[in-house]
Amino acid sequence: MRTKTTSYEDALRAAREAGDGLVLAARDGARAIVTMNEPDRLNPLSAPLTVKLHDTLRELAADPAVRAIVLTGTDPAFCAGGDLRLMQDTAHPMVDEGAEGATGAWRWIRNEFGGIARLITRTDKAFVAAVNGAAAGVGLAFALACDMIIVSERAKLVPAFGRVGLVPEVGTGWALTRRLGYQRTFELFAAGRHLSGAEAAEAGIANHVVEHERLLPTSLEWCERIEELPSHVLSMMKPLLRGTADMTWEQAITMEEFAEPMCFTTRAHRDAVESLLAAG
Asked: Which CATH number fits domain 8-228: 3.40.50.300, 3.40.350.10, 3.30.870.10, 3.90.226.10?
């Protein structure tokens, strides 16, 4: 019999006691591969998997030796999105029976689902989503939050919110309207249509579509390219580019004008200039 929880703290405590093996983390020098690992159920975002994923990413984000993180799922899926059992056993009792009412569910969505998305976007580590199969709902949101998205030919992007009576969340609407425009995003959510990996790449949602066997190697190749950048470039470039996406042109160029002189002070910049001049 599954246990129901009626408060955010109880749900968090129970999740931390049950997350063993649901998230795998493999370190290799300055990079890490984080894998959501409940393949029999297509890696759904159950409470234990979500909390373990958040804890794992938080630990890697705090490690100064890590520069790039690949986020993926154990085949055959990337992530099936929010777990229906979580909705039934945690969200519904929290809203109906808990003293916090809907605010308890709000805390979970904001602190856990939203917390993971914010961590991905705000840390100075580079995140590469390696989408190997279905990426649905909040799982899709996590992929869209990453700095690059590599999809395999088996990938399926599934905006499944409407099918279970929910609206887009965890930044999905923001991300897709900027890639597709309002009308095409509305159509996608209204129809609940699945996008193949090739369609996602063609629409500009994914950076590249590759053969399934090439997904992780390609993602790690991008990690290698990122690691070759001077450390200050990555830590400055990521917030700069994410910030300019919502600025006016004048605000963006002003931000860049302040950032660039700082780079002139670095040894990496000066060495690169001397090397290019010597080679020329």
From this structure: 3.90.226.10
Per-residue pLDDT tens digits of the chain, which is 280 residues long: 455 667 778 778 888 888 789 999 999 999 999 999 999 999 999 999 999 999 999 999 999 999 999 999 999 999 999 877 777 766 777 767 766 777 877 888 899 999 999 999 999 999 999 999 999 999 999 999 999 999 999 999 998 777 777 788 899 999 999 999 999 999 999 988 899 999 999 999 999 999 999 999 999 999 999 999 999 999 999 999 999 888 999 998 998 888 888 888 899 988 988 998 899 7
**3-state DSSP assignment of residue 117:** helix
Cβ neighbours for 21, distance < 8 A, ≥ 6 positions apart:
37
From the list 68, 42, 75, the residue with the least C-alpha distance to 219 is 68
Domain boundaries along the sequence of the chain: 8-228, 231-279
